[in-house]
Amino acid sequence: MTANSNNWQDRMMQNKYLVALQNFGKKVSRNKFVSSIMGGVQSILGIMMVSAFAQVACAAGVLMKLIEKGSPVYNAIYTPYNFCMALLSLWLCFSMGNIYAKKHELKSPVVSAMTSVISFLIITDAVQLNEAGKTFLNTSFFGGTGMITVFITVFVSINIIKFFEKRNLTFKLPKGCPEALISSFVSLVPLLVNIIVFAVTTALFKTYTGVIFPTWIMKVLAIPFGAVTSVPGMFLICLVMAIFTCCGVQGAMIIGPILLPMIMQSLEQNAALYNAGQPLIYFPVLLFYCFGVFGVIPLCFLGWNSKSAQIKSVCRAGIVPAMFTVNGVVMNGLPVLYNPILMIPYIICSLFSTLMYHFAFTLKLLTPMWIYVTGNTPLGIKEYLWSMDWRHIVFAWLLVIPAMVIYFPFFKAYENQKIQEELNIPETAEE
């Protein structure tokens, strides 16, 4: 077995099904539209973090009894949230439209992005008249609830622009005119067509369904999304992500953008409940962030004093990055990737952490999340910032102990194998 210790890994890496899975993951991530969604979401992370800072500051002020909910000071500190997270779909629409237009090499990505925003405002029926005949802005779909509509709007509007530009069906100005002026005239026809398409679509939906398109699409997707974001659905998603990760495919990068609209909707609802002083709701979709929360920290602890030189060096080099949820050193160094001995406990531990968080939220041992926090923060800190509940810190670290127990027999089997390899001790070949 030792003489062929690397053969099984090589065979696994070359397995046609795993190769096909990797190729599928690469194709998905390289798709112009999918990569635009990913890029758009990544580009607004700063906006999300500013909102989170405002929420954390307000929550901390209330906990320390420095301010009261609803006070002028509280509302002033909370202002960034109202202009960032509450208008998230608008910022995403512009950013994603700009990225998608660049991928199609359109002449003016910025103008194309503005066209997407205008189309989004039309399809969400944002400008309305009240009973007094005065115009007001309906922002119902400007937050997380409008993200699905954003994806559809950007795809349609940018492809309409592409259709006209690639066929030169645009107004042309003489050479020598300012570039900004040329871009404006080039976008004139596609913009007009987009306005007509989205205005007619809005009118048809209001006439024949009684609701606008965003409301209709949310109702249509409620059943499949409800199944996917149920507790069993989330466990299935976590299982798929764990398997993908062990096969070198960034499952979270593929699945994350799909779940993000439901996640943001849930966080917005809980944020509103928190500000109203009402009990928060446990939404199973938020288990997405509880998946394998401790990463490879249990492996690092087990391998700290390993008798295998490779395991010891990798675990000591990887423990600090692992504390900050950067698992690449250990995942590739031991490795966990394509390594059945360590893949099995990794998958089990990922599901175990998800299960424990489910029980903790259900039994009200932990406060459900209401703040969107991302980034590489130490284990326990990000979990605390999710809900400003100190129990999250303790709970995250307590999970490391049973995870080490799960890993232990698999780790010892792998350690013995590595020790034999390093000592060049042959094993009897299996018959």
Question: Features of this protein?
Answer:
single chain; 431 residues; mainly alpha; 2 domains; two-stranded antiparallel sheet; 20 helices; 2 strands; 68% helix; globular; disordered C terminus
Structural notes for this entry:
Helix 3 crosses helix 6, helix 14 packs antiparallel against helix 15 (309-323) and helix 17 (340-362) runs antiparallel to helix 20 (400-423). The longest helix has 25 residues, at 251-275. A hairpin with a 5-residue loop joins strand 1 and strand 2 (135-137). This protein has helices spanning 7-13, 16-30, 32-43, 45-63, 72-83, 88-103, 109-123, 147-166, 179-186, 188-208, 213-228, 231-246, 251-275, 297-303, 309-323, 328-333, 340-362, 381-387, 391-398, 400-423, and strands at 127-129, 135-137. It is mainly alpha-helical and 431 residues long. It has two domains: 33-221, no CATH class; 236-423, no CATH class. It contains 20 helices and two strands. Strands 1-2 form a two-stranded antiparallel ribbon. 68% of the residues lie in helices and 1% in strands. Residues 1-5 and 427-431 have low confidence and may be disordered. The relative contact order is 0.10.
